[in-house]
Amino acid sequence: MNGYSVFCVSDHTGVTVESVAKSVMAQFPRLECSLITLPFVDSVDKVRQAVGRILDTPRPLVFSSLTDPQLRAVLRDAGIQTFDIFDLVAPAVGAALGQIATPSGGHTHGMAPDYETRIDAVNFALNLDDGLNPERLDQADLILVGVSRVGKTPTALYLALQYGMRAANYPLTPDDLEQGDLPALLTAHLPRLRGLTLSAERLAALRQARYPDSRYASLDQCRLELGAAERFFRRHGLPVIDTTRMSVEEIAAHLRHS
Amino acid sequence: MNGYSVFCVSDHTGVTVESVAKSVMAQFPRLECSLITLPFVDSVDKVRQAVGRILDTPRPLVFSSLTDPQLRAVLRDAGIQTFDIFDLVAPAVGAALGQIATPSGGHTHGMAPDYETRIDAVNFALNLDDGLNPERLDQADLILVGVSRVGKTPTALYLALQYGMRAANYPLTPDDLEQGDLPALLTAHLPRLRGLTLSAERLAALRQARYPDSRYASLDQCRLELGAAERFFRRHGLPVIDTTRMSVEEIAAHLRHS
């Protein structure tokens, strides 16, 4: 293997530094990379262990988000070149603010939804998954509507976990589609309805993985269901997201701002 | 309001730049900040709209992750100081690699679990939630064990959505706890069991929110259940995570590396 080992060293979960490393490495598309995250590296001893591991690895590339400048110094003193988020970004922000960054600022910022909000939102998404408990739809921030396997459940769960949003989801069954319009219990909440759709080919592939060679997974059936659902969406002017080429993050980001 | 408006301008979901902005702003703990994310800003027109909004806002602070240098230039030409991840981090990485970053590298990096893997993992977590389908436990990457309301379900879903990991979860009911040991269907999978626990006070508060003034939510009952569960964990040498002061990200990061 002659690729790079991209280390993400963090004194916390590593989510931020991983995300930066992935974005930046995507700008070097011809490099082969594997990602190794070292989270909770929050003491001199743990940094030394990380250093040992990095020095034992051929072609390492080290990203870090170590709040404590002393810990960053341990990496530097070992001769390891590090791309540290705080070294690279915080000084510029401090200069603009006319303030010096406080390494002890820690990870508790008031800008993330808190644990309870997110857990409540997860419970809400589970309780209102797949058309359950429609009498509670009025409590939803968003109601995701679409045919089976269009990605409603994972999207609702991601909105809950990432943003603390309460998203219900409602499946349009072949029965619903034959009724010729969205069920009345949905149209009562029009401003919060969001349609999800995708290409018939992609839907057939997703269904095929679950129920091979079924009518449910046939391209014809997928086309029929998607066509009817999209007509309903258009009739009511719903914001619609085509998830064919999207990741869960992308779908959620679109919905959050829709 | 004399706080700062922290804008996160992204040509994609904004997840990365938000995460950096939050980490960096946490180092300025005395500043009041509100976060405004502008995702999918991927054309000159959309950058101009963003510029308009930023210029209309008092005390803006602008973080960005705009892959295209031309789009970054539009912000700069409007006289807006921007902390851009690619400007600040990519050049240092490029210098170390002896390569120039390709703005068109895009967002598809091979290092993230793909859509199908994550969706399958979500379905797995839902199918094996709360002790369901125990005959499939051998397919799990991890099996989360703990008393009711300890955070098993959100953690399993987060592991699925973020990392594509297949996590089952199994609740230790008062009945299980009275048996004097972990159920045999769990001990058959010891290497993949992970115990979750938290403080009795915190558990009582979480249960109280759900079933006020119940025996289930009483501090005594919580102490009893947690004590028994922790004895089981110790007896079998399970890795145990105390989630009392942890976010879902932190719990998941610990589990991923446990």
TrEMBL record, chains A, B:
It comes from Thiobacillus sedimenti. This is Pyruvate, water dikinase regulatory protein. It comes from the Bacteria. InterPro entries: Kinase-pyrophosphorylase. Keywords: Kinase, Nucleotide-binding, Pyruvate, Serine/threonine-protein kinase, Transferase. Its EC number is 2.7.11.33, 2.7.4.28. The keyword rRNA-binding does not apply. It holds the Pfam family Kinase-PPPase. The keyword Transmembrane helix does not apply. One of its GO terms (molecular function) is transferase activity.
